[in-house]
Fold these 3 entries.
Entry 1:
Amino acid sequence: PLDMVYYPLDAATGKNVTPIMKVTYSRPSSKGRAIFGNLVKYNEVWRFGANENTELKVFKPIKIDGKEIPIGYYSIYAIPGETEWTVIINKTTDVWGAYAYNTANDLVRVKVPATKLTSPMEYFSISFVKTDDGANMVAGWDTAQVSLPIKF
C-alpha cells in the first residue's frame, strides 16, 4: 500500500503546522519471506520501498551529512548491507524501482548502521523521530532498521 509521513508528524493534520519534509512510499510486506540478503539483495541499489521509488519532498532546506538539500523533490534509494546501509538522496523522480538509477544524479550518500529488530516488521515502514537539531528518518522492515540523521 501507498503511504506518506510528514515531519513534523502533525503537519498531516492540517492544523496550521508547516511541514519541513514529507516521504511518500509504497509499503511492501514480507509475507513470510526472508527479505534482506534474499528478496532485497545486499550491496545492490534498492528503491527503498516498492513500486515507484520512494520520494522525499523538502519544504524547507535540510542538511544530510553536512550537505544542504534545497526545497524540491528527490528520490530515496538504499544499498543494504548486513551491518551498514548506504542511504542515497537522488535528483531523479517519477521512476519505477531502481532500474533507471544513476549515480550521477546523487545529491548525497550516507552510510548508516543497520540494527537488528527483536521482532520482525511485516510491512516496510518509515517515520521521523525528533532530535535536538532536526529529526531522524527511521526505516524498518523484517528484522532490519536504519536511522538517517537530518538537520534543519
Entry 2:
Amino acid sequence: MSTQPKPVRIPPLPRSEWTDEVRSALGPLVDRDPLDNVFGTFIQHPDMFRRYSPLGIHILAKCTVAPRERELAILRIGSLNRCEYEFAQHTPIGIQAGLTSAEVERVHAGPNAPHWNDLDRAIVQAADDLFDDGTIAPTTWSELAKHFDRRQLMDLIMVIGVYNMISWSLNSWGTELDEKLSGHPWPPPAR
C-alpha cells in the first residue's frame, strides 16, 4: 500500500543531459545503470552532491555504529518523516545487515513496540527524541551509553540527522520510487 504520490518537483537528471561536471561529481556512480532516482535528482546540484558525498560515505561505509543498528536508525527516521523513498531504499539494506522483516515492520510502531531488545529500543527512541525535541533524552542517552562508546554515540546522532535531512529533501523534491523498490511495509501508522 502506498500513500498518495507527492508531486515531482525536481526530477532525476536524464543521462543524456549529464555534463562533465555531473559525471565528475558522480564519481563511481557514473557507471551505475540505472542510476537510483535519489542520485539522479541530487545530481541536479553537482557541487552540493560533491560536498555531501564524503559525509554520506562516512555514514554508510565508515560509521562506527554496526550496519544493522545504523539501518534501524535510518529506517526509524525515514518512518517518522513519512519518507517512503528512504524507507523503501533502506529496507533491503537493513535486511541484508541483519534486521528481520518483522523488525523492519516494527520500526513504524516505535520504541514502545514489544520485542525490541534494550539497544534496539534505545536506537528507535533516540530517533524519536531527536525528531520530537532536537536532543536525545537523558534516559535514552544512558541506555545508549551502556552499548556504545563516545564515537558510536556521535555517529548515531549524525546518522539520524543526515537521514532526517535526506528524508526532508526526498519528500520535498518529490523523488519517485525506483522500479526496484517494492515490498516494503508502507505507510506507517499515524503517531
Entry 3:
Amino acid sequence: MLAACTTYGPGSFAPGTPMAEVVQAMGPPTGRHEQGDGAPRLEFARGPMGKHTYMVDFDAQGGLLRWEQVLTENRFNAILAGMGQDEVLKRLGQPSQRRALPYQRQMVWSYRYESAFCQWFQIGVDLQGRVVDTGYYPDPLCDRLDPNE
C-alpha cells in the first residue's frame, strides 16, 4: 500500500481545478477565509515554523481562481495599524508563533519568511483584536544555529 503524500505548493494546478482535488493533493488547509463575494480562500501553511503560506482562492462553484505565497515583505508592509486581526489572518494566515505581552496588553504574532537576513516579521495585536504596530526583528531561531555545523 502506498503512503499518501501531499503537494508542497499549488503551482501545478490549472485554473478551474476543483477545490476537492486541491485539498486532496495539498492536505487539509490550515485556515479557511471568505473573500468579499463569499467564495472560499484556503490557507496552506507549510511546516510548523515554515517560511511559506499559500492562499488559494476559489470561485463560488469551487473552481481554482488563483494562488499566492503570502509571506513576503510586500504583503507584510501592507499590514497597517488599526487593521483587524481577521483581515491579517485573511492576508497572511496563521503566525508561526503567538506570544502574550501582559504588561503591554497585547499579543505578538510572528511570521518567518525567506529573506537574505535572519529575521521575522512581527505584529502587535491589542485586546480588541486590532493591529497596534508592526516591524522586522531578529529571528531567535538564528541564535540557535551554529554556522560551523
